[in-house]
Amino acid sequence: MTWKKSTPDLIFDIFNVILMTIFSLFFVYPLIYVIFASFSNPAEFVRHSGLLLRPLGFSLKGYRMVLKTPHILTGYLNTSFYVIAGVSINMIMSCLGAYVLSRRQLYIRKVMTMGIVFTMYFSGGLIPFFLVVKGLGLYNSRLALLLPAAINTWNLIIIRTSFSQIPVSLEEAARIDGANDFIILLRIIVPVAKATIAVMILFYAVQHWNAWFNAMIFLQERNKYPLQLFLREILLYGSVNDINTLASGDEMMDTLTVNLIKYCTIVISTVPVLCIYPFLQKYFTKGVMIGSVKE
Predict the structure, then answer these.
(1) Could you tell me the pTM of the whole model?
(2) Is the pLDDT of residue 42 over 70?
(3) What is the CA angle 258-262-266, rounded to 5?
(4) Which CATH number fits domain 61-291: 3.40.1440.10, 3.10.180.10, 1.10.3720.10, 3.30.565.10?
(5) What is the mean pLDDT of residues 254-258?
(6) Residue 282: which residues within 8 A CB-CB, separation 6 or more?
(7) Which residues contact 36 (CB under 8 A, 6 or more apart)?
(8) What average pLDDT is seen over the chain?
(9) How far apart are CA 173 and CA 180, in angstroms?
(10) Those residues with Cβ within 8 angstroms of residue 203's Cβ, 6 or more apart along the chain or in another chain
(11) Using H for helix, E for strand and C for coil, what is the string for 40-63?
């Protein structure tokens, strides 16, 4: 039996599709503009005004200059390290914490949860945070970007709620077979909650990929800077002299090339996240919805 939509419902669907299409264009076009600009010839691009619907005089000059800039490549490698190491630490700590908080036999779990949630709304502020990190000997260390951000409270609560939805019978059956808590977590809880885990990996990866503030505060050596911090310098202080300082070799850059490099750097820093997202998209809605059900 097929259900036929009424005229008002059909009108609403058409209006909704048109409205969402318009909104999507507003959101997508800036990215398309940056991509087209990064492949454009600098001289032709600077003379162009209005909408940009294609690359103007296809050129890879900007990307060649970016690849010749050692600090950008160093930043790219550093960011990749921070993402891989950071997500690994995040998921280990978050899953362990969520498993403990989701155990019904733990009498103080509600008190512990309230204490953890408290940190979402109240903190000591930037200066105490800096003093704690420096007091722990993490100043100008890569660990300063990894350990203070080991657990995101919101993500921890989502994982905990997801773990709480798993039937207790699975855990009881595993315990009868002699499984301990680590085996239950790794072989039962995590595989069952893989949708939520996949979404949290995406959240943590994007968080680390876009992070720059802690690096600006805690790092002094430029060879430890993440890519986003170099991108920030280029976008905010991107004069010809500044970018020539970042670059190496004898090839000096004019103002047109500097603008082109800005677009190319934005594309390079954005594409990895856009490539990862489609593989995790199927888990996104399911994982977030499972983790959002109130216990």
Answers:
(1) 0.76
(2) yes
(3) 165
(4) 1.10.3720.10
(5) 61
(6) none
(7) 52, 53, 54, 55, 56
(8) 79
(9) 11
(10) 152, 155
(11) CCHHHHHHCCCCCCCCCCCCCHHH
